[in-house]
Amino acid sequence: MRAVGGLTTTEIANAFLVPEATMAQRITRAKQRIKASGEPFRMPTAKEQTARLRTVLHVLYLIFNEGYTSSSGRELHRAELSDEAIRLTRMVHRMLPDDGEVTGLLALMLLIDARRPARTSADGELVPLTEQVRGLWDQSRIAEGVSLVNRAVAQGAVGEYQLQAAIAAIHDQAPRAEDTDWPQILALYGLLDQMTGNPVVTLNRAVAAAMVHGPSAGLALIDEVADRLTGHHRLDAIRAHLFEMAGDTDEALAHYGAAASRTTNLPEQHYLARQVARLRMGQHN
Questions:
Q1: CA distances (Å), 274 to each of 90, 140, 166, 207, 241, in order?
Q2: Which domain holds residue 169?
């Protein structure tokens, strides 16, 4: 069932890290409350606008994320969703050019989407960030995104989308993976983690911590939020990566295998299965 912005209830549930049945109940209850209220559709008051704008930006962000990495199916991307999210965010930005978070969200989308041409191989398989041919990245989108980040930061209080955009800009401006400024990324993720309390942000912070302070630091951060991400394939995928960094092949194998069994996106599944095969081959050599 398509519920919001072309997304299914399953996809929305995945974005909010809750079971599909829970999300379906939430959507049904929301529709019933709207119907029962009898409130007509109208423009929000100035007092209501801030909260409603935050909700709009969050929905656009979720639509973009589902387009950039589909939660299920044979393709890594659903370009029609990410393109539509960018188009709609541009519209909001034209109406509210001085809002730092609107500017930040548009910058974030452009900076991440700039990598899309390098994220899959010729046969559609996933290529991780560290292995991407950066010459394939869309430099015009990177330039626009960086310009927007700089403008957003100058617009006042820094919000979560501005912080995420700043992190994306650091990645995009590194000529090679090994040139990435991980200490700065770790500092930004620390701020973002304090601001949002989002366990997925903590996972990303754990990767940055591992790159700066070693894999044990990253694994310790993951342990803090593991109970909030039970069954999520990204938890296992990142644990596998960090255990491999630490030289613990057995744990890495177990978590790569668990991650492969839990994702429903085929390119992600194939990538994780290749990591299992690679590590097993290394054990036998």
A1: 38, 33, 32, 20, 13
A2: 47-178
Domain count within the chain: 2
| Any domain includes 255 | no
**What is the Cα–Cα distance from 160 to 148, expressed in whole angstroms?**
15
**CA distance readout (Å), 165 to 42, 55, 139, 220, 236:** 32, 18, 16, 26, 25
Residue 220 is assigned to a structural domain of this protein = no
From 121, 144, 178, the end of a domain falls on 178
Q: Answer yes or no: do 153 and 35 share one domain.
A: no
Residue 214 lies in a domain: no
* Cβ neighbour number for residue 105 with a 10 Å cutoff: 30
Summarize pLDDT for 35-72 with one digit per residue, the tens.
566 665 556 666 777 788 999 999 999 999 999 988 87
User: pTM (2 decimals)?
Assistant: 0.85
Query: Where does a domain end: 146, 178, 210?
Result: 178
Give per-residue pLDDT as tens, 88-126: 999 999 999 999 999 999 999 999 999 999 999 999 899
205 close to 186: Cβ distance less than 8 angstroms:
yes
